Structures are given as structure tokens and as C-alpha cells.
Amino acid sequence: MSTYRTLKSGYKMPSLALGMYHIEPQQCTSIVKDALKIGYRGFDSAQFYKNEKRTFEAISQWIEEDPQKNKRDDLFFTTKLFDGVQGYDMAKKSISRTLDKAKQVGSYIDQALILSPQTNKEKRLETYRALQDLVKDGVVHSIGVANYGIPHIQELYDWDGLEIEPDVNQVELHPWLMRKELVDYCNNKEIQLVAYSPLAKGKKFNMDEKLTKLAKKYDKTQGQILIRWSIQQGFIPLPKTSNQERLLSNFDVFDWEINEADAEILDHPELYYVTGWDPTTYEDQ
């Protein structure tokens, strides 16, 4: 069963969640149901992933299978607002669409994040104002940001409209992209780091000798080593897969640890290995 981390808001977020990016809608229902049976309780989605509705359908079916045991309150669903729906009115309309999809399982969303800082100060702050109001309305429990660098987060803290501090900052994190300065800053603010692409998209599998050796030493997959490393760093990793076998192995990371010396072998604080995009460096034009 998944373990949880308590966020600044007081809500509990699973310490590992299934990343839903690039999971096709037609695959989504079966993957989410399989994940729920394995023990996943966190699901990280976004409107532009186009799989929110199927995720809620799978959750609804899972609850119906055993209403006494399978509870919506045990789950944690995250959605994100991309650049095109930022601004106060657009953000509220966007979240209302996700709430409509969520009606089959409840009247709230666990978490909503601003996906990127790549708009401008006015839109970022007005979007965050909308998220705060949605929390006050009781339809969103936890709010935060994604792909925010230190200046973007500090912008929030310097804003006189900040009433609810961000619970999380979701960014790409793995041993080859440790972002020490950003991680230290977020830790000092008690902002939970959520790590997407914790496996570095598999690009280091069988390429990094230290990773290969640790997998052999612990008799684990290289993916399990990286997920466990992320958890031990204090991050919440979001591994994603549509493969049943890897869905199971990626979750099998809670009853063992990498010893401290071995975990440090994987560290590459000097590297900046981005596998996708990096809006944390964005500066307003």
C-alpha cells in the first residue's frame, strides 16, 4: 500500500503517484484500474493529457467493485493548468470542466497546479488567485505550481494577494538533474518537490555504470533504483508506464532502502541533464 506525505495544507499526498502524461485515453481506464488494484492511490493528470474523464471512470468502477473498502477519500488526483488557460476567469472555467468530469466520483479535485510560468506576472498571479478562491469554495483541496524556478515562486511570496501558500512544485528531478538550489529553496519554504520524469525517460538505463551496478547489487530494476532514490531525497516521484509489469515493479519500492553511501553514488549535482523542457529558466519578455 502507498505511503503518504503530509502537505503544508494538511492534506496527505501519496509518496508515489502514477504519471498520466502520454497515456492514451483508450488505454487509460484499464491502466488506472490495474494501478488501483496494485496499490497506487495518486494520479497526476492535466486537461491537455485528454485522459481525465477516463481516469475518473476507472476510479468510479473501482469504487463500485467494493464501496466498503475502495474509498474516494483515499485517492489523490492532480490536474494542471497550461499556459492557454491562465488568467482568473480562464483558470476557473478550466477547473470547472475538470470538476464536471469528476462528478461521477465526487465534488472536488485533490490538487490543481499552474503547469508553467511561461506567461507573464499578471496572468500567473491571477491564475493563482483563482486557485485560492477554488480552495475557499471547497472544490479544490491543495494548490501549487509546476516548473517554477526560484524567481517565479518568490514572486508569489512577494505578492500581497498570497493567502494560501503553494503545497508543491512539480519539476523534472533525477540523479542527473538534482537542482540543488531550487530544492533547498523549496524545502526551506516547506514546498513539497514532486518529481516528474524520475526515470530520466530511461535514457540512462544501461548507460550509467553506477546505476547498473546498484540494480544488480539490490536485485532491483534500474527504474526501481531511481524511484527509490527519489523517495529517499524527499521527493514524490511520478513514474509513468502503460506496461503492466513495470506498473507493478515501479510500485514495489516501499519495503526496502538504498543505503546512504550507495544512494550518494548516483548523485550528479554538477550535471544539468534535462530530458524534455525546462520552464524554470523562463524570464518574462
TrEMBL record:
Sites annotated Lowers pKa of active site Tyr: 80
E.C. code: 1.1.1.-
Alphabetical list of SUPFAM superfamilies matching this protein: NAD(P)-linked oxidoreductase (SSF51430)
Keyword Transcription listed: no
Gene Ontology MF annotations: oxidoreductase activity, acting on the CH-OH group of donors, NAD or NADP as acceptor
NADP-dependent oxidoreductase domain ranges (all copies): 22-267
Keywords recorded for this protein, A-Z: Oxidoreductase
Pfam families registered for this protein in UniProt: Aldo_ket_red
Residues annotated as the enzyme's active site: 49
InterPro entries referenced in this protein's UniProt entry, alphabetically: AKR, Aldo/ket_reductase_CS, NAD(P)_OxRdtase_dom_sf, NADP_OxRdtase_dom
PANTHER family, sorted: 2,5-DIKETO-D-GLUCONIC ACID REDUCTASE, ALDO_KETO REDUCTASE FAMILY PROTEIN
Protein's name according to its UniProt entry: Aldo-keto reductase family 1 member
Organism listed in the record: Wickerhamomyces ciferrii (strain ATCC 14091 / BCRC 22168 / CBS 111 / JCM 3599 / NBRC 0793 / NRRL Y-1031 F-60-10) (Yeast)
Lineage summary: Eukaryota, Fungi, Dikarya, Ascomycota, Saccharomycotina
